[in-house]
Amino acid sequence: MLAIVGTFGTAANIGISKYLNAKKVPQLLAASASEKLNDPVNLPWTTTFFPPQQLEARLYAAWLLKNMPNAKIGVLFQNDDFGKGYLEGLRAGLGEKASSMIVKEQSYDF
């Protein structure tokens, strides 16, 4: 196999990444933003199309801190790597203010 390009979904891409990398088959532009696929040491043959979800969530957090520093945030997140990655990024981006700004977190199954 020459390469696999544009496979869709976090779960599917994570599921095939170790196999493809073991066979040295390039997994190019995987349609996922999972941090688990952004691992050049263990997955050197894998690239993603989207920026990492934690980076995106940190950008939202930076906007909130600048424009709404006293906001109270309720987070509804998908109960998988995709949703948990955004939640981790939001917490990291809010830093020490995360515990006072995030008042409720609720996961859901997709």
Can you offer a commentary on this structure?
There is one protein chain. By secondary structure, the protein is of the alpha/beta class. The protein is 42% helix and 20% strand. It is elongated and about 55 Å long. It starts with a strand and ends with a strand. The mean pLDDT is 95.
The biggest beta sheet reads:
3 strands, parallel
Structural class computed from helices and strand pairing: alpha/beta
In oligomeric terms, what are we looking at? single chain
Listing every helix as H and every strand as E from the N terminus to the C terminus, the arrangement reads EHEEHEHHE
Q: What's the total count of β strands?
A: 5
Average pLDDT score: 95
Sheet-strand content, in percent, reads 15-25%
Helical segment tally? 4
Approximate helicity band:
40-55%
Please tell me what the overall shape is: elongated
Which blocks of ≥5 consecutive residues have pLDDT under 50?
A: none
In the sheet with the most strands, the strands line up as 1-2-3
How large, in whole angstroms, is the Cα Rg? 16 Å
How far is the first residue's CA from the last residue's CA? 32 Å
